[in-house]
Structure to design on (274 residues):
């Protein structure tokens, strides 16, 4: 009986190992199904937002997802998700990867794997011009809004003394809250705030983007931690895009000269240093 028990235990262990190995080979699964499901926000211009004519989701993050899908030889499927749902959607297997304004933090890195950084974001504070705030520190003790579950929310609490954070599900709701006086400031990516500032110049409530940056964060493509083959493949694609100039071309397309942002690329694809 003992011999049979040992054999049964061994067979069960082999079966369990095989099941784990099968689950861990996500790269093979993606290639087999012929589709890469990329989670993105869909409301964060210029990273992922609807084309005004076609209503199809486009942007910087979408182009990077598309490049990964093309390198894998599969179709790209976009799934629009909220900021707070990013990591749960990935962990539960509803998306294969995340390209969704996902800033690296030590806490997130314990939950998921990050690719090499494909964007570096200045996180800034914006406020109504009439309030005459000059620096982020001027919002000490004030009400400041950020997307729920974002690094912007955590950064506001960390870097602005005695702040009260107010969270919303998406960035457009922050802008409305600021203009309606429900909050004193908002924390978001510099690029979003620069566009808001431009759009608000002709409105009754112009806004200013305060200097200096509250903090700087690298963004990576999010993946599940045990997917070694997929992680390596994504990093190989990003490295190739850097070497070929495609990463720079995508930056210039959405953020460079002739865009509302008029920025110059000052970073490159590289491993994130925690």
């Amino acid at each position: 009986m003992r011999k049979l028990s040992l054999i049964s235990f061994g067979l069960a262990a082999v079966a369990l190992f095989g099941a784990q190995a099968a689950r861990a080979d996500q790269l093979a699964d993606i290639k087999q199904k012929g589709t890469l499901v990329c989670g993105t926000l869909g409301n964060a211009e210029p990273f992922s937002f609807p084309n005004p004519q076609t209503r199809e989701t486009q942007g910087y993050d979408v182009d990077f997802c598309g490049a990964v899908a093309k390198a894998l030889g599969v179709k790209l499927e976009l799934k629009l998700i909220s900021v707070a749902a990013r990591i749960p959607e990935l962990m539960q297997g509803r998306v294969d990867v995340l390209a969704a304004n996902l800033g690296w933090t030590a806490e997130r890195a314990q939950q998921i794997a990050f690719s090499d950084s494909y964007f570096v974001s200045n996180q800034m504070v914006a406020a109504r011009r009439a309030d005459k705030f000059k620096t982020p520190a001027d919002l000490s003790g004030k009400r400041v809004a950020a997307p729920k579950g974002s690094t912007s929310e955590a950064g506001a609490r960390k870097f602005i003394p005695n702040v009260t954070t107010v969270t919303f599900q998406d960035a457009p709701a922050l802008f409305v809250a600021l203009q309606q006086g429900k909050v004193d400031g908002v924390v978001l990516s510099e690029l979003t705030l620069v566009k808001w500032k431009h759009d608000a110049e002709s409105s009754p409530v112009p806004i200013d983007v305060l200097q200096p940056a509250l903090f700087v964060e690298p963004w990576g493509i999010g993946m599940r931690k045990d997917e070694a083959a997929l992680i390596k493949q994504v990093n190989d694609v990003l490295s190739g895009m850097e070497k070929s100039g495609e990463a720079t071309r995508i930056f210039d397309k959405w953020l460079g000269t002739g865009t509302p942002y008029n920025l110059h690329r000052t970073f490159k694809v590289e491993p994130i240093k925690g």
User: Anything to note?
Assistant: The longest strand covers residues 207-223. Residues 1-22 have pLDDT under 50 and may be disordered. Residues 58 and 261 are 17 Å apart (CA to CA). DSSP finds ten helices and ten strands in the chain.
